[in-house]
Design goal:
The chain is of the alpha/beta class. The chain is built from three helices and six strands. α1 runs antiparallel to α3. The longest helix is centred in the middle third of the chain and has 11 residues. It is globular and about 45 Å long.
């Protein structure tokens, strides 16, 4: 991660990783909009990559970075800019916490946006990709 980004920060509800910069969501409501707002108050540009979408690759991520956009169909992958997005995010955080229609989007192949949260979600992967993933323990659905 450090090879691709200057200052990576991991965000989660509780500390999961040691030895990496970490931001813990503090609010009673857990929604990605809150840490995005807080990080944009400190940084003029942030790149968000959802950990549960492992198929997004360097080429597609590069397209998002060059265009300063988020992935169409998954606004948890892409670029948010303080100047363009912070006001909209603050207004949205007062009610509807979804990130849709905040930042401009760029089409990304839907197969790259597959969300993996449980071992059973691996069933949605194309068969040729299954050998790339191994599951050890964890709770499955």
């Amino acid at each position: 991660m450090r090879e691709s980004f200057k200052n990576p920060i991991f965000v989660a509800k509780k500390r999961k990783f040691r030895g990496v910069p970490f931001y813990r969501e503090r609010g009673r409501k857990y929604a990605p909009i809150f840490p995005i707002i807080e990080l944009l108050q400190k940084h003029r540009k942030i790149v968000v990559i959802a950990a549960d979408t492992p198929l997004i690759g360097g080429y597609q991520l590069g397209r998002l970075l060059r265009s300063n956009r988020v992935a169409e169909g998954n606004p948890l992958i892409g670029v948010y800019l303080r100047r363009r997005d912070l006001g909209k995010l603050r207004r949205r955080a007062r009610g509807d916490l979804r990130l849709q229609k905040i930042a401009p989007t760029l089409p990304i192949p839907s197969k790259m946006l597959i969300n993996i949260n449980y071992p059973s979600d691996l069933n949605s992967l194309p068969p040729h990709l299954l050998p790339l993933f191994s599951v050890r323990g964890g709770k499955g659905k």
